[in-house]
Fold this sequence. Notes:
alpha/beta; six-stranded parallel sheet; 15 helices; 11 strands; binds manganese (II) ion
Amino acid sequence: MHIDKHQIAQHNQRLEASHGRRFAQLAEDLPNVEKIVQQLNDFQVAIPSWALGTGGTRFGRFSGGGEPRNLEEKIADIGILHALNRSSGSISLHIPWDIPEDYAAIRTLAAHYGLVFDAMNSNTFQDQSGQPLSYKFGSMQHVDRAVRQQAIDHNIDVIKQGMELGSKSLTVWLADGSSFPGQLNFRKAFQNTLECLREVYEALPDDWKMFVEYKAFEPNFYSTTVGDWGQSLLYASKLGEKAYTLVDLGHHLPNANIEQIVALLLMEGKLGGFHFNDSKYGDDDLTTGSIKPYQLFLIFNELVEGMDSRGMDHTKDLGWMIDASHNLKDPLEDLVQSVEAILVAYAQALLVDREALIEAQASNDVVQAQEVLQHAFRTDVRPLVAEARKRAGAALDPLALFRDLDVRGKLIKERGTKAVATGL
Ligand code: LRH
Ligand code: MN
């Protein structure tokens, strides 16, 4: 299933008149509109290979059909997404859910769709068939050195696979922890985990990064051995300059101030990247910006302020990745909405009048500070994001075109309704 330039050009032609009017009106008040459109154009979000099928919970899974049956079809689906919005230019693989059989062929196929490989993700939270030792009581924290060694070897193997694909980073999320008081010696669990991460760190090529992803709870429900930003920062600081923290928006306790965490991790030069999604309660992995769009804006506000204060490159100095699971929505429609929400929050953050905000903060003018932020948040920036897409050769309205072309219908014809994609 391909979406070609003509289908996009026809679609844009139909929408050009109304889009042109809205964009022109917005651009009138924005002296730096060209710079902002270029920044939106350059901003690429990595798509998780494990989120192209229907997700589920322990209570059930309701497949929508036409799911990718192998890595090649997953790459083709991300190719469809990238053709629609030209903002989804990289793939984040999860091993062993997506082990390539032929690295060169997979790289060529990805390049055919204009895609590259972003962070690799290891998996020591499930026991694979034929795996000698179980991760039931953890992996890198495990009391048994042999289990820890198995986890180290797996991560080093994932690095090797990533090098074949041109990836430059490894994300380590450990489900390790405990579900009952007394089950675990917290100090030994930390030290075992640090010792293992250090051995993986030493196997990193010079130009690679390691992202240490923290999570408050699940699948353990009493303690998690990389449980919050402080613990992740402790590991990353002790490991060295190639190690960073990774912020998954769904991995915080209720009401955590994630934008403050982001500001401080950036200040320390230890923020590595994001797993974007949204949640109301736990690690719900819902569509980005679907529950707390203001929080997403406030996070991007801290990102733009913090990255500019360090002279960082918005497009490549942090890992921008989605991590979601689609229980109800069509996986590709959900991802179209997530990418849109991320670009809208970024555009709003680029509109913040930084001088006015600094002035308000310097004079403790709390009211004015809120006015400055909410003026940007309440500005409908969608014409800016659409204009960036149009200039990149993508669709003005990706969701509408996805539906007009009946993409899912064609995928179901091609793949049937029974296929189950690997992943969550
Ligand atoms: C853990 C997590 C992690 C992935 C997994 C698919 O909750 O966020 O990033 O390995 O989801
Ligand atoms: Mn994640």
